[in-house]
Amino acid sequence: MIPLQVDPNVVAQGVNYVWILVVSFLIFFMQPGFALLEAGQVRAKNVGNVLMKNMTDWALGVLVYFVVGAGVATIVGGLTSPGGFDVAAAFSYIGDSGAWIDWLFGAVFAMTAATIVSGAVAERMDFRAYVVFAATITGFIYPVVQGLTWSGGLLSGSGYLGAALGVGYLDFAGATVVHMCGGVAGLVGAKMVGPRKGRFGASGESQPIPGHSMLLAVLGTLILAFGWYGFNVGTQATVLATTESGGLEFMGAALGRVALVTTLGMGAGAVAAMVVSTNYQGKPDPLWMANGLLAGLVAVTGAVPHVTWWGGLVLGALGGAIVLPAYRWTVDSLKIDDVCGVFAVHGVAGAVGTALIPVFAVGGFSATQLVMQVAGVGIIALWTIVASAVVFAAAGTVFGLRVSEEEELEGLDIGEHGVSVYPEFIGESGPDRGVGTRAATDGGNDVRTDGGNDVRTDGGNDVRTDGGNDVRTDGGNDVRTDGGNDVRTDGDVVGDNGVAVTEGNDSAAVDGGENQ
Amino acid sequence: MIPLQVDPNVVAQGVNYVWILVVSFLIFFMQPGFALLEAGQVRAKNVGNVLMKNMTDWALGVLVYFVVGAGVATIVGGLTSPGGFDVAAAFSYIGDSGAWIDWLFGAVFAMTAATIVSGAVAERMDFRAYVVFAATITGFIYPVVQGLTWSGGLLSGSGYLGAALGVGYLDFAGATVVHMCGGVAGLVGAKMVGPRKGRFGASGESQPIPGHSMLLAVLGTLILAFGWYGFNVGTQATVLATTESGGLEFMGAALGRVALVTTLGMGAGAVAAMVVSTNYQGKPDPLWMANGLLAGLVAVTGAVPHVTWWGGLVLGALGGAIVLPAYRWTVDSLKIDDVCGVFAVHGVAGAVGTALIPVFAVGGFSATQLVMQVAGVGIIALWTIVASAVVFAAAGTVFGLRVSEEEELEGLDIGEHGVSVYPEFIGESGPDRGVGTRAATDGGNDVRTDGGNDVRTDGGNDVRTDGGNDVRTDGGNDVRTDGGNDVRTDGDVVGDNGVAVTEGNDSAAVDGGENQ
Amino acid sequence: MIPLQVDPNVVAQGVNYVWILVVSFLIFFMQPGFALLEAGQVRAKNVGNVLMKNMTDWALGVLVYFVVGAGVATIVGGLTSPGGFDVAAAFSYIGDSGAWIDWLFGAVFAMTAATIVSGAVAERMDFRAYVVFAATITGFIYPVVQGLTWSGGLLSGSGYLGAALGVGYLDFAGATVVHMCGGVAGLVGAKMVGPRKGRFGASGESQPIPGHSMLLAVLGTLILAFGWYGFNVGTQATVLATTESGGLEFMGAALGRVALVTTLGMGAGAVAAMVVSTNYQGKPDPLWMANGLLAGLVAVTGAVPHVTWWGGLVLGALGGAIVLPAYRWTVDSLKIDDVCGVFAVHGVAGAVGTALIPVFAVGGFSATQLVMQVAGVGIIALWTIVASAVVFAAAGTVFGLRVSEEEELEGLDIGEHGVSVYPEFIGESGPDRGVGTRAATDGGNDVRTDGGNDVRTDGGNDVRTDGGNDVRTDGGNDVRTDGGNDVRTDGDVVGDNGVAVTEGNDSAAVDGGENQ
């Protein structure tokens, strides 16, 4: 056996980077998780807009974060610590293929912060304004927070405040750096764009607008939990560490603590939210259990390597327990229409869980650390509020933050994108179909209630109760109870009242409509 | 180059634990797989209840398995083998962060057994009774099975029976320890809770109640198959083994056999079920092909490292071929309404595949092994039947196993959780809406057929054909063909018969109803 | 510390094969990605058929590829290169468990090519004909392409053409070997089976038939992107390479380049398609952004380790930009009804991205390489066209390529499989329900517009507007506006016009129908 003439660092690199690549892919997979969580909580007529915003967060975000964002974080780290900075060095990663795995690992965290925001402003924000914000949060707002913390800036042990206090800010995987940043930015956006039409009654009372598919929201939640194992446990990026003596050390205990506390926090958050929603609403609510599971995860995300297992369980339970009350406060007191409750789930749970790390720390309580935690939460929140408000205001000035009332009623899918996501179930269908006119060629059954005119060429059956005019060329069955006029050119002898007496198997229409 | 002064164990730990962590995350991802598989096979009015039960299995299950379950398994292992046991040692993992990755790896298997059960008892079991069972199967019923087998107890080589026979029970990744345990417990629950209303005709003939989305069921199946690669191949947890001579050995052949037999078993199971369902129903059925794919996976899960590749192909095909006949036997002979066929997919395929391991063993046939396999299947099944019956009976006594007939008809989403999962497509919507009264504020189009009264404030269009009374304050369009009374307070001059002649674009209502 | 007496190859094997196994699982997960992408783009009445074809691609495909396909590739490699071949050696993997992980790694690429085809021929191809093609592409058509390229054949550096030109064909992860092969085969199939009824108007103008769920299509896209990280980065299968000096080298730069170019290509493709679709249709279209994301990925899949990061960005953007124009050309000029645009996404983007590798090569431009790239694209496309045409023609001769017009109108779910995927939303339900007669026993709300007769025993509410006759035995509410006859045997006193005045809460039926 040839004595192994290898550098232990190489072995460690091999193991560590297989781990880092796989967890980066898992964290990317949180993008469809967030898209489903949000799509499920909006009405069918706005699902396409949600999908568009979530794809844009990622597609545009990675380009911006590569060309600008990652460099800005390093510069801010240097600016807010004695270390100083060098612009060329800050952007050196762009030409260094050896740095590109680390860049991807950083990018998937940045994109997570960005995609949280869309959940708060859904169903009424202008798509162009949103794109401006998505580019800015990935190019500037989030990178500043990353600079202040993970890139050695102000709040880190080597930053001005960290050096002054003698302790660095603890937020292991981004409960505040990523989630609170996204949650607070979302709250600011929801406030500035205003509530959806009908969300609050005349006297300001909350009138919930249920999403079109709780199934999608819970599926999104469980996909997020799957990706979150990459988010939390993956941030323990060192599996094999090289020791001073030239050997290797397996970081099993650290990995184990992060994996366990993530699991217990998730479980406790979901169970706590089940209990609290039963208390609030009389019955355990699946959507609140899902939000509790997420809030439990957010609450422990900053704490996972730092706290005891029972501390993680308590923090998770706390996150899950406060998510519904925090949402109610957002809606009933602040009167802010945060559609997916992102402030409650990501903002409040992230802040509370990260501030309380010292209370449950494995190494015991430290008042200084508590001071730093509270200061860190405050500084990140303040920066995010100010920066988001400025960017939303600017985007609003250029494009207008909100779509028109008419478009909001019709749905952003048609208004912003000219599409219907579920043409056979609800609403208009297909880009060729202008508003009001609908050339259904899909053989699907139409239940029309919008007065639009149908041009049917696909044998699909129509139940018309809205006075719209049909042009039938396909022998499909028409049932008219609405006085609408039928124009049939499919060989049917059109009797009175829209009854096609020959080919099509039409029932009597009792609507007195004229048919040619 | 510094000669590597490292302990080969450390290198092996690094490689092996990256593998164990990633496969644990994959096995967790089977939770949404099971949730979709079940949600797709129930009616829309019960999907929220399915999601709630699946989230509870995991969230509550991990807490119970950490505090109780894992320790119980070790104790049972000691109790049923000459080894004896020590309670403190059995629960020592709780305080040992070095043991927490292994705990998570065990927990994801336990949670898989628990979540299978809900598929059998869907659409009529009381949620509180179910929660009791979920806690007990993760805290006691499954851990006993784990103790008897994987934790060195009765059936293992070191257990009383194993020592007596001179062979240990073979079930590599849990075809019976996990899947048959879940499938049998599900059958017991389905039997004790009774069939769904309308499932059997007056003369006991089967009247299938189709699920609301075969797409979700097949998507769940393919997510399960993705996680199953972690379930099976991950159970070959040692990638690099340390040899006696202090070197390392790559377990490529063992990993390769498990990966190949898993793939061929899956494929053969699906193809066999396609052929059998064509034979049974005249046409190849996608849902039975999906169930065959799962049954093929279950059938090889215990066998994967032990059998030849063609043996795995045969076992998989056998699993896929018997799943439909086993389901028909469950329904037509046992008259048990096992909604998702969990007994056929997980119970029967698991038992048959694991019992027949010796027939296809790489090392050749062993009668003693066959005796142990059959004994093992019998003991695990018997324990599961008795324990499940006792727990279901106890839960039934405290809470009643079954929801009321009225609630079953209305749907468990509203009855147990006060929600509707697809408000724009079917049924009630939102927690504020008591049964019968519906304050639709979502702008969605309502097709009301339940006589409930509508309070509309969101401009959504109503097609009322059920005599319910509308209170409209939003200019939305009403089409009344049912004599229902409209109360319009949105500036519309309410003409006779519910025609709002000004703002709202209402068509003539020909229903003679009174409108104020 | 014992000096490590290990073979560096073993350490490298451990690390590399954990990586290869995990990425193989990720690539398998692209199967449900493709299934959702396709299911979302067809009508509800054909979703079951899409699911069936996608499950069959995988289940049958892995069996065929194990028994035949992988061996054929090796033989073709030997046949088209000076190396020659040996049949026994070509199929030696079948008995060698040490080769089975590599086999699985190859199989998941083969299955990807197969499943792309079904997206083009959806909604009208006979299922048996499709199964014949699925078996042939996995057993012969794709393996020949693999042989010509990755298995050392004609186009590789050691192949006849490669040796002649002095350069081997570059297609790192299969932009053309897998994707263009699938896309071209799909185009041939779509051409030979003919367009869907109603897809083109009388004068040949395009009449889009929108899919039933853009949400599923975008979810499928993002699942594909998740698996694609395994597809591209996983093809850099060596994480730790053993050096000549007996040491190990970490391939970080190679892995980093593939990971970065994959990410930038994906992002640029999506953003480019968003811009182009806005230009074409006036508004940014979510489905085209999703297709652009995929086309961006395809375009860089062959190029990822070979090109600069900005080259990857340009290739991705190019792929995303040409996908809509390529689709329009397919439809408007070629008049081919490629339902999911697989030729545009996988064929055109794959060809263009791979042909242009030399233009953006890290090592600089090479005219010879460009010649090889163009020749390779041409040879693969030509082989695929000829072979696919022959197989589709043969399958058509035996089974007929196309389902009947009546079946196409009714939907392939019922015609080919006897099922309805969304019974509560649209269409017939359950295998027991022959066409026209429907024994709804699911308590679901029926909106019947097809004149079929209902036998209701489950309390579900009916809105009948189609003259069909109801037999009610369950107290469910009936609303009749269609003159249909009600036969009520549930204790209701059936008044005139179908009004059950006692138990069932029926509204007045104004249809003059006779009720007993």
Structure in words:
3 copies of one chain form a homotrimer. The first copy, chain A, is mostly helical and about 525 residues long. Among the domains of chain A are: about 280 residues, Ammonium transporter AmtB like domains (Ammonium transporter fold), CATH 1.10.3430.10; about 80 residues, no CATH class. Chain A is about 55% helix and about 5% strand. Chain A is built from 16 helices and 9 strands. In chain A, the strands form 3 sheets. In chain A, strands 3-5-7-9 form a 4-stranded parallel β-sheet, with no helix packed on it. A 3-stranded parallel β-sheet of chain A has the order 4-6-8, with no helix packed on it. The longest helix of chain A is centred in the first third of the chain and has 33 residues. Chain A is globular and about 70 Å long. The C terminus of chain A is likely disordered. At the B-C interface, helix 1, helix 9, strand 2, helix 10 and helix 11 of B face helix 1, helix 2, helix 3 and helix 5 of C.
Provide a concise account of the structure shown:
The structure is a homotrimer of 516-residue chains. By secondary structure, chain A is mainly α. Chain A has helices spanning 8-28, 30-40, 47-79, 87-90, 100-118, 127-148, 160-165, 175-193, 214-233, 252-281, 286-301, 309-333, 342-355, 367-399, 405-410, 412-417; strands spanning 240-242, 248-250, 437-438, 446-448, 453-456, 462-464, 470-472, 478-480, 486-488.
> What is the terminal separation of chain A in angstroms?
94 Å
The assigned CATH architecture of one domain in chain A is Orthogonal Bundle
Question: What is the oligomer described by this structure?
Answer: homotrimer
Rg of chain A over CA atoms, rounded to whole Å, is 27 Å
CATH fold label of one domain in chain A: Ammonium transporter fold
The main pleated sheet of chain A reads as:
4 strands, parallel
For the secondary structure, the number of strands of chain A is: 9
CATH C-level class of one domain in chain A? Mainly Alpha
Encode the helix/strand succession of chain A as letters.
HHHHHHHHHEEHHHHHHHEEEEEEE
Q: State the helicity of chain A in percent bands.
A: 55-70%
CATH superfamily annotation of one domain in chain A: Ammonium transporter AmtB like domains
Keywords (chains A, B, C): Ammonia transport, Cell membrane, Membrane, Transmembrane, Transmembrane helix, Transport
Subcellular location (chains A, B, C): Cell membrane
Family (chains A, B, C): Belongs to the ammonia transporter channel (TC 1.A.11.2) family.
Subunit structure (chains A, B, C): Homotrimer. Interacts with both GlnK1 and GlnK2 after ammonium shock. Interaction is rapid, reversible and dependent on nitrogen source.
